[in-house]
Amino acid sequence: MSLGAPAALWGLLAIPFLVLLYLLRVRRREHPVSSILLWQRSAPTLAAYRPARRIERSLLLLLQILAAAAVVVALARPTAIVRGVEGGDLILVLDLSLSMRARDVAPTRFDRARDEALDLISHLRPGRRAGIVAAGPTPQVVLPLTGDHATLVAALRALEPWDAAGDLGGAVLAAGELPLSRGGRIVVWTDAAREGLPAVPHATYRIVGTSADNVAITAFRIARDPGGAEALLRLDNFDDRARRVPLDVSHDRVTVYRDTVDVPGGGSRTVVFPVAGTGEFRARITTHDAVPEDDVASAVLDPAPLPAVLLVGEGNPYLERLLRVLPVARAAATRSLDPAAWGSYGVVILDRVAPGPVPPGNYLLIASVPPNLPVSAAGEVRGPEFRTWDRTDPVLQFVDLSSVRVSRALALTADGGRVLAGGDAPLLWAFEGGGTRALLLAFALQDSDLPERVAFPVLLANSLAWLGGGPIEIGAGERLEIPAGAASAAELVDPAGRRGTVRAIDGAFLLPALTRAGVYHLRTEAGARAITVRPAARPAGRIKPGVAPAPSGAGGQGPEARGPLLSQVPLWPWCVLGAVAAVATEWAIATRRRGGDA
Amino acid sequence: MAPSTGAGPEAGRRLLAPEFLQKLETLSLLSRKRFRGAQRGDRRSLARGRGLEFDDYRAYQLGDDYRYIDWNVVSRLDRFFVKMFSEEEDLDVSLMVDTSRSMAAGRPSKLLLAAQLAAAIGYIGLTNLDRVGVTAFASTTASRLDRLRSRARAVDLLEFLDRLEPSGETHLGLAMRRHLATSRRRGLLVLLSDLFDPRGYEPALLLCRHHRVQTFLIHVLAEEEVSPRIAGDLRLVDAETQQAVDVTVDAEAVRAYAAARDAFFHGIERFCFRHGIDYLRTSTAVPVETLVLRWLRQGGLLQ
């Protein structure tokens, strides 16, 4: 048993005063009697006059002492230490940060935490509910409060750490928002390696991990430059001692760069080196540290950052010339308006044609208005001007339309989508939905001087990138939605080679959270797209365990943070109950006695 | 204490019911001793003379009334003997009623019960041509009703008793000394008191013994004095002296009180037995009719 406020026990000194007051108590009711003669004569044998005897015999005094003692002990906030977690509902918060993959605790920090959580679930008494909150990059309530142990166990077993830093504070706060029953507890498993933990009431932190030994690849990128391609790789040493780290970079299983990098304790080193070829490059360091997962990183140098393009129309020298220059996967031209031939292209450019309804896909529409899009053309406008355009939109990034002159354009009326540029009339309109991405330029290139402007190639490159997408690079855990075009399903291959199927919903692939750093491949009939999940950023590689916030604001971490999972059962309600019972008993006895002597 | 004024003609009726008074007329006071009376009455006295009840013979002496010579004896013995008769004289009955403040206790009050008893005894005496006097006493003051004789004075007796009010402290010795100092004849003294005198009841009773007064002590108590029905931490305040005593009345205290009470009662009983004093203890819970018609007859005061 422990006391939350042992200083309150000084209040026990009040009990002798209580006895003294009892002895000296002068609150006697005056009662007239005909004569006190017999009372005086009974005095020599009257035990009630002797204080010691009165104390000995006074049940009321005993009850008062008991009540006072119970109140004082309650103020001292006594708690009983019991194994497990007592109380009402239970919220299990597991840190899914990269640092939880550390193997300084066998088998890993996360596995140890999950085993404890499973053990806790297995000892839940019937009727107690539990819920699970995952502290990934975005906190997520994995399972609301439920009493179904099988569901809880299954949900726990499905959890895996991510190659990113988790938002543990947000997860704990989210757990605190759940409607816990009276006496409910939040148990958090984490290594507290990065951030201060919020001191949430009823939260118990379980700190796992012992080591800070980790050297990680925190950045690996390859970019083209005029002379070819160059790779940038950064190493971070999160331990205090300096490390000498062998580095090996391979391409198609052939080492293209090898080095030994000296990384100071707590410091970092950046290595820049030229690479040749395109495709996936893999970097690996040999460290034998606690987290081998962050010793490997991948980067992709795509040979064609822009998609395959099909130009449909009577021919457009401006476009044809530009497509030969832009890094598109491939480019072709046709006069056929048959959508069946469009499926293998990432983007279809419809130039001054009158198409029928277009199937889901990515379209750059130049003075062409398909009937199944929420836009219509009613005649022409003469001499429209670009007065405003959305410079923040990816399509218009670095595009200056201020001096572009247009002699005539379609008079567009938009029922949806968004107008990106225009004046009195929309001149550039974008739409996204139903598996279709479309950009509509309201005028033919020949009716303007746009092809002669610097904005033209930039606008076209931006448009193709937005429509068909280039190489995708995201952080672990970021949500990704990719237009599905005409495809109904795609195959997703993770960095470890595991394959999964992603169904298109409303014309888009909503990818599951990509938790592992490396290169994923999304394959459809139209081709494959590489999705690079960046290595965990520098904060995620810090694995040195922190400390749990002190309970009740006292210094030091709570006793439950390490070692066997114990919980403190507050005993003060029982003390208060005892005090109330003692007072009630005293009251009952006092009032039962005729005349009462309370 | 002093009798209050303004008692109406109904005073006697308030004190004793007329039906009860009728019952009393059949009773008479019984004196274990024979006293010399002042006037002829219905009671044998030590004085031998003109009574009807034969007492003894004695030799004729000069000056004796010829009418009392028993000629039958003369004829047989040839000597003159005169018959002696017990002279039937009245009984001097003194009623001493304690009117101290402690007598106000009880329901009905001890004073009322004492007054009723005194009224009953006095009425019986008056109907039997006894001389009846009443002294109401406390410590400092005493009022007295002159000795009454004949039933016609019963109204005065009842009115006097009806007007008694409790006041003052009990001082039995002083009251008895004053009473005996003014009494010219020995007779029957009926003392009605709760005997709660801090100085003790013994001096007063010993004074009676010294004056050879036949004393009948009626100890009047309230029911709450016999069995207190109080509890808790109390400051008991004496109704007469205003003295206080702090008592925690619990079962132990009640037992101690009972022990002191019993010792008090036994002490009175032993004292009265030793000194030939008739003693009757009663409480306000006993009706006056029962006391008079049953217990005073059994106690030898009435017949």
Automatic annotation (TrEMBL), chain A:
Q: Which InterPro entries match?
A: Aerotolerance_reg_N (IPR024163), Double_TM_dom (IPR011933), VWF_A (IPR002035), vWFA_dom_sf (IPR036465)
Q: Does the keyword Manganese apply?
A: no
Question: Would you say which domain of life the source belongs to?
Answer: Bacteria
Task: Report the Gene3D superfamilies cross-referenced here.
Answer: von Willebrand factor, type A domain
Q: Which residues cross the membrane?
A: 6-24, 59-76
Q: List the residue ranges of the region (Disordered).
A: 542-561
Q: What is this protein called?
A: VWA domain-containing protein
TrEMBL record, chain B:
Segments forming domain VWFA: 90-253
- Report the protein name in the record: DUF58 domain-containing protein
